[in-house]
Structures are given as structure tokens and as C-alpha cells.
Write a structure and sequence with these properties.
The chain has 24 helices and 19 strands.
């Protein structure tokens, strides 16, 4: 896990002067162990290394292939790289045992075809000295970031946005991203677009070949989820065994490391399954990191303690982070600088504290439960698609059992029935709701925005793809990467193993929910790794942070910023919302409206951003 940077230019004599624009010290936190660069004619590669596999110099980058034809700057982890060596390069004499060397030599052998064989996460730049072209690729879900900016003198690449700060006086907000964030909390879901007009993201699950003369990057998909996947299997005993095996394989493959590993444990289903598998199928020492608010109604310590009983006490070291002792001073500002863009809510700051604890403990690799809700339909928005599938297949008994056991409100059921019976009306209502939620946003802040169409509430396949690539996973992976890498820690997500998704795409949608039990497939297949208290849990908490207390703590700071910097058509409403937050309990929608608006204003100041109209 590392930080990478690159410059591709048309004129080789300009490379040395232009490479000074990319200051690797800005991403030293991503790779604190070693920092290197290489000028390769029309290509410059930079790398900051976090040593995880092969701690010797044999794993340093930029790395050149044994033949001398290819050079690579790579950020990520390929969990099956030893199998790839055995399969494709059984007689090759490797210098070391890093995954970087594996994929570099594999690329020389089979080119972009290697991407379909790789299991892991990555962002990579590979320069072909012979053909004078650059190969770029990013993993299937975008776990590892890769930004780029096209300028007159060349194309610049980097793991983080801060690398591009020297190229202009300030960034310009992408008004579609701003509007989506303020009205719905969605961000990171605009494919190649970022929060800033000047900076693009290389798309997920894609690759491209670029020559120095090119002024545009055209990416090709190497993996995707089909619009109409083959969903023809029931979830019987054989499927249950297969899913269990795949989950175990996914978790154990990500324990590959030459440094100590740990896990984040919340007490929920997902992280507890990872812990249970490690307890039963591994022998080494495990560091466990958990963040709680002792004595609070949302304290999950009792569930964490149940999971810890699965381990031999001599095998674990438990690190507790007391969230009640969080200092609110500059909390949001610090997180914005780490994230480089506005983010969902301050729970991200709680996750950051766990990564700080990991760094302090000397643990460089952390496994987490991200991705399970997206894969196994754990969110509310996916439930409608499952129920609709059950009705269409006339599975009335299963539907009614879910009806009795789901904690849906009357309003939820009315929305579902309307969507199921009158799908065109549902889309009209969603568009109307979006317009209503955007009313408080100044026209200056949403000028030129695009319209983003939401998925249908009753189309399971649409919801599945939307959750993975639009409204949920992209921003979760963003904050997970930035928080971990800011502390020189590699975050790994076992549930984002594409082999799991390939299996789930064969299962009928109606099988994903039984007796109101969300993530039923995962709970059922992995029940032996879950304490009974957690297997039966129906509530979902996550990292709890008291948003209202944080806003009250920063009341005067926020108030002054609103008075001085908000457009006139937003000021009175937001100041009124802020005053109500100080006086009494208010709806979550109002809390988030104030928090997100303040985040935009702080981003303007801290990152240096303007609106197109300014």
C-alpha cells in the first residue's frame, strides 16, 4: 500500500522541470517507509512506499522488469499473487516476493489480460519503454484512488488531490457534486468526475493505454456487473456451503502480510464474522480495535465482548477507543484536510481515531467489514427490490413473514406499494422529492448541475449496482482509504472479493431476506462464526458520533461563517436551522443540512475552492 504519482509528457526535455510540480512529500503519509522517483524519457514515476510484503529493497518502486522493458508505480495489494506466480510464471527467477514484482512480470507476459486473474485492490501506472506508452488500471470497486489532470504540457497522475494544488491558484467546485452532497448526502458517485472541475478520477474496473501525444484518456472496462445477471439459484444447502467457503477464502487471503495485522470490530454482523473466521482458522496474534461510548444507549461493548470470547485470550491484543473523550476542537477541519473533500458525517472522524490507534500500536494492516451491506442487501433501500421479487414470484408466505418482522413504518410501506403498483409515479415522486430537498441551496451553488436519476425502489438489480457504484460504497471506500493511509495503515476489505459477487449474482433476489432478517444469506452461511447475540441482531449502529453536540460546540464558529459567507438566498434559513439545533432536538435532516453546508464552506477555505460563478 503506497502513494503513486506520474507525469506523461510529449516533450522529454520538459520532464525534469515539470516533475518538480509533483511534491512526493505531500503523500509521504501513504508510504512513510521509502520515497523514490524515476525519469523515464517522456514518463516520470513517483512512489512513496508502505512496506507490507517483502520489506527488503527488492520490493522498492518504481520497479523495472527483469527485461528492462516495463517500469511500474503500484498502490494496492494482490492477494492471490503467489498463485499467479505458480500458474503463469512457475520457472521465473524472482528477485523478491512482493506482489508488485509479480504483476510487473505478469504484465510483460500477458498484458491487460492479467486484470481478470487478479484478486485484490490496486491503482497502477506501467510505462512501456519500447512502445512509449503508459498503461493505467484501477481495481474493480475503486478501493485505491487514482486522480489525473490533463494540462497543455502533459497528463499528471496522483493518489491524492493535494498533489495537484500547485497547478492552479484554487480548485473550482463541481456543482453537480455539491448539489448531490447537500441535498442527499451522496458523493464520490459521479464516475470520472470528482468534487472539483479540474480533477478527474480514473474509472473503476477499467484500464487504458495512453501515448504522450494523447490529450484524452479513453478507458476500457475489464469487469462489470451485467444489467440482467443470471439469478436462477435458490439458497439451498450446497449454495450455503459455497458461500461460506468463499467468505472464508476472502478473509484468509487478506491475511497475507509480512507485518502485524489487526481488525476493526464494531459488534455488528460483518466485522464479527471476520473476527470469527480469524479466531477459528488462523494461529497468529491479532490486534483488535474497537470504538465505543461507554454507558451510552448506542454502546456496543457487550457485543464486542461476546466476539472476544471466540479467541484464545493469549492470541489477541484489544485496543479500545473511548468516543466520549473525542475533542470537538477542530474535529471537522482535521477530517476535511484528510479527506480532501466534504464527507457524510462526523462518524468518519471516529474511524480516523481507530486508524491512529493502529499506527500507535505499530499495526500496518487492518481488516474491516466494509462492503457487506452492499453485497448482501443490508440497507433499507434494497429491501423494496427483494419484496417486489417475492411478490412477482407469488411467494406470499415469505413476503408476509417479512412484512410482520420488518421494522418498516406505515410511510415505508405506502412508498413501496406505490413503487410496485405505479413505477412511473414513483419516479415522478422521487424527482419531486429531490427538487424539494434542493430548495434551500443557492442558485449560485447549483448552476449548471446535471440531473442524476435514482434507481427504482423495486428493481433489485438496479439497486444492487447503485449501492456498489453510486450511493454507498464509493464514499465509504474513499474515507476508509484516506483515514488509514493518513496514518500509514493499509485498510483491507475482505467482502470486496469479486468472487463473492460473481456467486451472489446467481442467487434469486427473493432469497436475500427471510423473516425480516437483513443479510440473511451471510448470517445463515457464516452462523458458526457469530455469537448468537449478534446473529440475531436487527439494529445497526456503526460508528456513532453525536452530531448535534458537535454542531452546538462549534455554534459560534458556524454562525459567523454562515453570516459572512453564505449567499443571501441561503442565509436566513440556515441560520434559523442552526439556532433551532442549539435550542432543542431537531430532525436529522436539519442537522445534516447545517453540517453539510458548513462542510462546503470549510472546504472552500481549507482546500482552496471557488464556485464557477465566483
Amino acid at each position: 500500500m503506497c502513494g503513486i504519482a506520474g507525469i506523461l509528457v510529449n516533450q522529454a526535455n520538459e520532464l525534469n522541470s515539470l516533475s518538480r510540480n509533483l511534491d512526493l512529500s505531500l503523500i509521504e503519509h501513504r508510504g512513510p517507509d521509502r520515497q523514490s522517483e524515476a525519469s523515464l524519457g517522456k514518463m516520470w514515476l513517483g512512489h512513496t512506499r508502505l512496506s507490507i510484503l517483502d520489506l527488503s529493497e527488492a520490493g522498492d518502486q518504481p520497479m523495472t522488469s527483469k527485461s528492462g522493458r516495463f517500469s511500474i508505480a503500484f498502490n494496492g495489494e494482490i492477494y492471490n499473487h503467489l498463485e499467479l506466480r505458480s500458474l503463469f510464471l512457475p520457472n521465473f527467477k524472482f528477485r523478491g516476493h512482493s506482489d508488485t514484482e509479480t504483476i510487473l512480470e505478469l504484465f510483460e507476459l500477458i498484458g491487460e489480460k492479467m486484470l481478470s486473474e487478479m484478486v485484490g485492490m490496486w491503482a497502477m501506472l506501467i510505462w512501456d519503454h519500447e512502445l512509449q506508452r503508459l498503461f493505467i488500471s484501477r481495481d474493480r470497486f475503486g478501493q485505491k484512488p487514482l486522480y489525473y489532470q490533463v494540462l497543455g504540457e502533459g497528463i499528471y497522475f496522483g493518489s491524492e488531490i493535494k498533489l495537484f494544488a500547485k497547478f492552479q491558484e484554487s480548485f473550482t467546485f463541481n456543482t453537480t457534486a455539491v448539489t448531490e452532497y447537500l441535498s442527499s448526502g451522496n458523493y464520490g458517485h459521479l464516475e470520472e468526475e470528482s468534487f472539483y472541475q479540474e480533477i478527474s478520477q480514473f474509472p473503476v474496473a477499467s484500464y487504458a493505454f495512453i501515448t504522450p501525444e494523447q490529450e484524452k484518456i479513453e478507458a476500457t472496462k475489464y469487469w462489470d456487473i451485467p444489467n440482467s445477471p443470471r439469478r436462477d439459484k435458490k439458497f439451498g444447502e450446497s449454495e450455503k456451503r459455497e458461500l461460506k467457503s468463499l467468505v472464508i477464502q476472502a478473509v484468509l487471503s487478506q491475511t497475507l502480510s509480512d507485518v502485524p495485522i489487526g481488525i476493526t470490530l464494531s459488534g455488528g454482523v460483518d466485522s464479527s464474522i471476520i473476527a470469527g473466521i480469524l479466531a477459528k482458522h488462523t494461529q497468529g496474534h491479532i490486534h483488535i480495535f474497537t470504538a465505543q461510548i461507554p454507558g451510552d444507549l448506542k454502546d456496543e461493548s457487550k457485543y464486542v465482548e461476546d466476539v472476544l470470547k471466540l479467541f484464545d485470550p493469549s492470541r489477541i491484543t484489544v485496543h479500545y477507543v473511548d468516543l466520549s473523550k473525542i475533542s470537538y476542537d477542530n474535529l471537522l477541519e482535521e477530517s476535511l484536510l484528510i479527506q480532501e473533500e466534504p464527507f457524510g458525517d462526523p462518524s468518519i472522524s471516529a474511524h480516523s481515531l481507530l486508524m491512529k490507534a493502529a499506527k500507535k500500536a505499530g499495526v500496518k494492516v487492518i481488516l474491516g467489514g466494509q462492503g457487506a451491506d452492499e453485497l448482501f442487501a443490508g440497507y433499507d433501500h434494497a429491501i423494496g427490490g427483494i419484496l417486489a421479487a417475492q411478490l412477482k414470484r407469488v411467494q406470499l408466505k415469505r413476503f408476509l413473514n417479512n412484512l410482520r418482522n420488518l421494522s418498516w413504518t406505515q410511510k415505508d410501506w405506502i412508498k413501496f406499494c406505490l413503487a410496485f403498483l405505479f413505477p412511473s409515479l414513483e419516479q415522478k415522486m422521487k424527482k419531486s422529492s429531490r427538487i424539494q430537498r434542493e430548495e434551500f441551496i443557492s442558485n449560485k451553488w447549483k448552476e449548471g448541475k446535471k440531473i442524476i436519476s435514482p434507481a427504482s425502489q423495486v428493481n433489485f438489480n438496479e439497486l444492487f449496482k447503485e449501492s456498489l457504484f453510486k450511493i454507498h460504497l464509493p464514499h465509504l471506500l474513499h474515507y476508509d482509504d484516506r483515514n488509514a493511509m493518513n496514518e500509514g495503515v493499509e485498510g483491507r476489505t475482505p467482502f470486496l472479493d469479486h468472487r463473492l459477487i460473481d456467486f451472489l449474482l446467481s442467487i434469486k433476489p427473493e432469497e436475500f431476506l427471510k423473516n425480516g432478517e437483513r443479510k440473511f444469506l451471510l448470517r445463515d452461511a457464516c452462523q458458526e462464526y457469530l455469537p448468537e447475540s449478534i446473529r440475531r441482531r436487527k439494529d445497526k449502529i456503526g460508528f456513532h458520533t453525536p452530531l448535534q453536540k458537535i454542531l452546538i460546540h462549534d455554534f459560534y464558529k458556524i454562525s459567523e461563517k454562515f453570516k459572512n459567507e453564505l449567499p443571501s438566498d441561503m442565509k436566513s434559513k440556515l441560520l434559523k436551522d442552526l439556532e433551532e439545533i442549539k435550542q432543542s432536538q431537531v430532525p436529522v435532516e436539519k442537522l445534516l443540512r447545517v453540517y453539510r453546508t458548513y462542510s462546503i464552506l470549510m472546504t472552500k477555505k481549507l482546500i482552496g475552492v471557488k464556485f464557477p460563478s465566483e
